[in-house]
């Protein structure tokens, strides 16, 4: 296989990982909001921060491979 | 009813904006005439994502087959091997492949993929190797007023104009009127939702100015990137790196004793773990944090532009299989909704950048509980001594 | 990574750093400082107004309570005054009554005394009058019936007896 294909496979793996992570974050945040609707604002802020950190990691990995 | 009317207006505006951007997007600084094939679309997108040396609004090919460009040439300022060299970007004649060589002060320059190269002495034209790298030319330090610099200047002046007017309004009355009514809640939002909770009541005042500037700078430039002007300022690594390094400098400089102690000599862990933790913390504070900041913003905006332009390109790439009407309407619908998402992303990225900056600064200036205990001890001691004396 | 580094333009980095520094400085000086100052001033103003309103409300309540208290006090005072007046009135009446009674008793006693003394005087006068009369009678009788000694004696005797009976 050509190196470009390896890159694409790596990118796919990163995206799968990031997708699982984001799903976890989002799902747990929803659960939390459903349990405690009055804390929705705080949960949302925390969720966005964690999602942003994950996103930074994923993008970092993607661009390292590019 | 009013809300419905307003949202309709907003939608109309968005459609207009999208439509004009879809027209202009494929004409910015183009060099090869009409774009149709997949390869050309890819090249075009890559070209758009890069900075450009002239502010080209649109180009077209007239009936006689001549390529016409409509836009403004910008000054090129270079720090070459023999000092400062300046000329207008129009001297490149919209060439981007090293075909045109500009001679100035006895030095020869050419532009390849939005980068200006200085030719070696005696070379008349650029020669390329197999990977399309120039063999007889080297990059020069390029301080040109590029399109991104124009964008920064424009948005900076716009921000200065808007917010100094808002500041003047407060002198006359307590409640702003007109556009100030839109700006005020945003300022309050950044102050009360980003700066205050993340940095803390005691220190947030010092950093609010920086956070507000960064927030509005990023947000407005993100939005400007979605307009037909075709700015891609926040999608330039240099710009996001500059912002991230500002944040790095601010939280490094304002870090208190406690912050440094937690980085260099983490309390409460076994002694042999401390050096390892210090290494991790140092890497985290000086490399990972700013790197994640700069890459996140850059990648989000670049990715947004790539996807949006690819969806617009469906018009050309699927013309054969879906027909003109089918391809155009598919492209229109898809890119319209993506544009709406991008509007959200534009805000979200500005929010996240500011939020994380505030968070990092907050970590650096935070006062920990055991510090307070210590303080209390000292004051109680002082009280005891005073009690003995009196 | 290679492409990224290739895309990175150090010139743009320098230019944007300078521009951003200038922008931050200008924005802080001409926009954020005055805006944030007036915003916090306004917030403090609102807080102050709210506090003042709260204070005024409390003062109002205090005032009302004061008024209520004053009213209550006045009512109490009036009542005590009325009570005192009533007491005074009855006391005065009782006093007057008592005084009148003693006065009357005194007058009665005086009158009785006067009566007894008058009676005594009258009795004495009567006695002396009776004695004078009886002496006159006795003179007359004596002049008439001095010759008849026995008859004289008898007469005196009878008259004396009559006198003591009176």
TrEMBL record, chain A:
It is a multi-pass membrane protein. It holds the Pfam family ATP-synt_C. InterPro entries: ATP_synth_csu_bac/chlpt, ATP_synth_F0_csu, ATP_synth_F0_csu_DDCD_BS, ATP_synth_F0_csu_sf, ATPase_proteolipid_c-like_dom, F/V-ATP_Csub_sf. The record marks 55 as: Reversibly protonated during proton transport. The chain crosses the membrane at residues 6-25, 46-65. It comes from the Bacteria. SUPFAM superfamilies: F1F0 ATP synthase subunit C (SSF81333). Residues 9-61 form the V-ATPase proteolipid subunit C-like domain. The keyword Metal-binding does not apply. Keywords: ATP synthesis, Cell membrane, CF(0), Hydrogen ion transport, Hydrolase, Ion transport, Lipid-binding, Membrane, Transmembrane, Transmembrane helix, Transport. One of its GO terms (molecular function) is lipid binding. F(1)F(0) ATP synthase produces ATP from ADP in the presence of a proton or sodium gradient. F-type ATPases consist of two structural domains, F(1) containing the extramembraneous catalytic core and F(0) containing the membrane proton channel, linked together by a central stalk and a peripheral stalk. During catalysis, ATP synthesis in the catalytic domain of F(1) is coupled via a rotary mechanism of the central stalk subunits to proton translocation. HAMAP family: ATP_synth_c_bact (MF_01396). Belongs to the ATPase C chain family. This is ATP synthase subunit c. It comes from Winogradskyella psychrotolerans RS-3. The gene is atpE.
């Amino acid at each position: 296989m050509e190196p470009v294909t390896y890159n694409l496979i790596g990118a796919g793996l990163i995206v799968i990982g990031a997708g699982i992570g984001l799903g976890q974050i989002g799902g747990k945040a929803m659960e939390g909001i459903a349990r405690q609707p009055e804390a929705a604002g705080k949960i949302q802020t925390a969720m966005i921060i964690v999602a942003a950190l994950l996103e930074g990691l994923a993008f970092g990995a993607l661009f390292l491979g590019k | 009813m009013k809300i419905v009317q307003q949202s309709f207006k907003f939608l109309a505006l968005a459609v207009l904006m999208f439509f004009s951007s879809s027209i202009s997007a494929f004409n910015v600084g183009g060099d090869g005439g009409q774009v149709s094939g997949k390869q050309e679309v890819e090249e075009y997108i890559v070209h758009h994502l890069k900075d450009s040396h002239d502010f080209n609004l649109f180009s077209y090919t007239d009936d006689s087959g001549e390529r016409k460009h409509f836009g403004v040439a910008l000054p090129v300022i270079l720090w070459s091997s023999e000092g400062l060299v300046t000329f207008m970007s129009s001297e490149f004649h919209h060439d981007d492949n090293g075909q045109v060589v500009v001679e100035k002060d006895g030095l020869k320059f050419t532009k390849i993929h939005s980068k200006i190269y200085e030719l070696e002495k005696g070379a008349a034209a650029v020669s390329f190797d197999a990977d399309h790298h120039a063999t007889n030319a080297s990059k020069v330090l390029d301080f040109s007023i590029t399109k991104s610099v124009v964008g920064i200047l424009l948005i900076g002046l716009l921000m200065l104009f808007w917010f100094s007017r808002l500041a003047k309004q407060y002198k006359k009355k307590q409640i702003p009127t007109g556009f100030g009514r839109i700006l005020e809640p945003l300022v309050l939002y950044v102050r009360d939702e980003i700066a205050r909770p993340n940095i803390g009541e005691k220190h947030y005042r010092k950093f609010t100015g920086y956070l507000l500037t960064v927030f509005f700078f990023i947000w407005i430039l993100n939005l400007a990137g979605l307009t037909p002007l075709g700015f891609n300022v926040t999608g330039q690594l240099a710009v996001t790196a500059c912002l991230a390094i500002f944040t790095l400098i601010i939280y490094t400089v304002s870090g208190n004793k406690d912050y440094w102690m937690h980085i260099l000599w983490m309390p409460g862990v076994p002694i042999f773990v401390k050096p390892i933790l210090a290494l991790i913390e140092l890497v985290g504070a000086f490399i990972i944090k700013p790197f994640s900041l700069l890459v996140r913003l850059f990648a989000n905006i670049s990715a947004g532009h790539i996807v949006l332009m690819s969806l617009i390109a469906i018009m050309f790439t699927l013309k054969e299989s879906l027909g003109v009407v089918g391809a155009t309407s598919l492209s229109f619908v898809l890119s319209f909704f993506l544009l709406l998402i991008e509007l959200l992303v534009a805000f979200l990225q500005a929010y996240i950048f500011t939020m994380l900056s505030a968070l990092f600064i907050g970590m650096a200036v935070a006062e920990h509980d055991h510090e307070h205990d210590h303080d209390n001890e000292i004051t109680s001691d002082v009280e005891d001594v005073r009690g003995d004396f009196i | 990574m290679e492409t990224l580094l290739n895309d990175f333009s150090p010139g743009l980095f320098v230019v944007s750093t300078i521009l951003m520094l200038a922008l931050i400085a200008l924005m802080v000086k001409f926009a954020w400082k005055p805006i944030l100052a007036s915003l916090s001033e306004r917030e403090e103003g609102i807080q102050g107004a709210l506090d003042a309103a709260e204070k005024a409300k409390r003062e109002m309540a205090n005032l009302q309570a004061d008024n209520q208290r004053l009213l209550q006090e006045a009512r109490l005072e009036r009542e005590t005054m009325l009570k005192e007046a009533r007491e005074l009135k009855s006391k005065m009446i009782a006093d007057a009554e008592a005084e009148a009674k003693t006065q009357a008793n005194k007058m009665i006693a005086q009158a009785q005394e006067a009566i007894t003394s008058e009676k005594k005087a009258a009795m004495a006068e009567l006695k002396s009058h009776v004695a004078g009369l009886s002496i006159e009678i006795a003179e007359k009788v004596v002049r008439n019936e001095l010759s008849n000694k026995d008859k004289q004696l008898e007469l005196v005797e009878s008259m004396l007896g009559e006198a003591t009976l009176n």
